[in-house]
# Entry
Amino acid sequence: MLPPFLGSLIGLLMALMLPAALGCLALAGWSLRQEGGINFLIGGSFLRYILWAGIFLTVPGMILWFSAHGMALMGSGSTITANYMTMIQTTVTTFVSDIVVDHLVPVMAAVLVLKAILDVAGGENPLGAIVASLFLLGIYGIYNTAQSWNDGTTYATTDFLASAWNFLASQICPLSGALAIGGAVISYVTNRNWMRYAACSLGLLTVSGLWYLIRNMAGV
# Structure
């Protein structure tokens, strides 16, 4: 039996997982622009923040997995009993949702819009800043969608990542492929290299098929 203080502390940490996930998504959006906006680095900050957001959202499922293998985590189901810890939970949750997401994130998105304009002035591609800005403005939608991917099972974390991949392949990639077709047309009209846009569009529109092909080649 845990002392009441430790039980309340564990309950507080569990309650703060959701605002922590929301904060990770905001940091992921900002990191996306630093890594290029329309691309990301393997092992970079964007993927790390997305992974941590998934972990924070699916911690109960991970606890169930350990419990199923004989490693029950004492106090994982504790609730907050101390009033001052309830105040801490309310303050942190309100700070993340009110200050960070409702007020700070729109400013960050606006800065990226300005960055896009300056990129155009400097002869650079503004699409990276625009994509990152749209990601930040859609934080709540991404967060709500991510919550629906949490099935609460022992494999909640890996199922979350699989659902994120399926959403990316079935929803985002076709839209990106359509935009790449537009980029190919514009590049052809302006007598620029349009083949890379056409190849990118073909890959994005067939990414699911390519994935299954590679899996079959690997015998998985």
About this structure: Residues 14 and 76 are 8 Å apart (CA to CA). DSSP finds ten helices and no strands in the chain.
